[in-house]
Amino acid sequence: MCIICVLPVGTTISDEELKNCWDNNDDGAGFMYVNPNSGNIAIKKFMNFDRFQKSFRSTFDLHKNETPFVLHFRIGTHGSNSIENVHPFRVNDNVAFCHNGVLSCVETAGDMSDTRAFNEVFMRDLPYNFTRNNSIMTMINQLIGHSYNKFVFLDRDKNVTIINEKLGEKSEGRWFSNGSFRKYARGMCGTNSFYEEWYDDEYIKRYQAYAGKQYYIPRGQNWAPESSDLFTEYCTICSSYVAEDDFWKDLQCCDTCLEDVENIFLCELCNKAVHKDSYSHSYKACIECAKYIEEDDKAYQAYKKEQEELDDIQQYWKKDYPSLHSMTMGEWESAQSNMLKARR
Fold first, then answer.
1. Phi-psi category of 343—alpha, beta or left, where left has phi over 0 and alpha has psi -120 to 50?
2. Which of 48, 53, 118, 328 is deepest in the core (most CB within 10 A)?
């Protein structure tokens, strides 16, 4: 799996989140930042969590207001679980990077990981400041694909560049390449293996390993559901997760909510079913869509008023000042004054 954590200046990460990252990705951890004193990219790597945490926390507390930090926790897929394969990797004196995913575009041999091999074979020959070249970054994106691989670059100017940023998730101003900074549990349901994430106060997000599916279960329940019973759909009305068979995708609501016909209305813009408390009868739309309609309506009314004023001005000029172009400056100022008095 692995996980990359990007901490911009002004953000932080708790010791619990650090421990969650390590517990779910425990084949080594490292971090990088721009040393404010030297201006160089500093990289530190560890195979032991306690040493990692002590080093990171002391460094972060010292420089957190001066430079972004990029952290990486590894699960080994290629090569040995050694310090040499722990991220980040230095490309040149100006750029270093981390990777989350599996690279099929490079061959590995022996103890070398796929990311380390990619850096040696491809990245090392790139220009000094290649992260500023859109063509090169697009080429890298095409090489690694758009489905699950993510790259994070840091340069000496403290710029963080993320390839496939949309595949990660943001939390409190930070960016994570996946959700394994939260608590996870691995186990078995019947004959099916799974790992799960403590999603919120009501639900657990569970990933079914054999099927590659994710779904949600209420806390306290632990069963091996059939595919038709997986809680995969989110009802926008009651804010609960339901099985696909109990969900109306077009309306984005569950069967139970749809049965409450007296209190459910259909938005004519987004076609979602909403509760009466979230519905605007004036615009026949949900509250979110109604906001846009109201803004457009206000803009239209302002435009209409402006056009009416322009029409009035044009009629005034045509009536009392037909020879506009032959006016002197004094006559022009007098005409303006008279027009304003007339409009008052």
1. alpha
2. 118
Cβ atoms within 10 Å of 246's Cβ, excluding its own: 15
- Do strands 241-243 and 231-234 pair parallel, antiparallel, or not at all (unpaired)? antiparallel
Q: Which domains does the chain have, with CATH numbers?
A: 3-176 (3.60.20.10), 184-259 (no CATH)
pLDDT tens, residue by residue, 76-118: 888 888 999 999 999 999 999 999 988 888 877 788 898 999 9
pLDDT for the residue numbered 343: 52
Q: Which residues pair with 187 in a beta bridge?
A: 194
Question: Cα separation of 76 and 81, whole Å?
Answer: 6
Our CA angle for 326, 331, 333, nearest 5°, is 125
> In this predicted model, what pLDDT tens digit does every residue of 222-256 receive, in sequence order?
544 444 455 667 777 776 666 777 777 767 777 77
* CA nearest neighbour of 107 among 119, 92, 116, 117: 117
Contact (Cβ atoms closer than 8 angstroms) between residue 237 and residue 257: yes
Side-chain-side CA neighbours of residue 338 (13 Å):
11
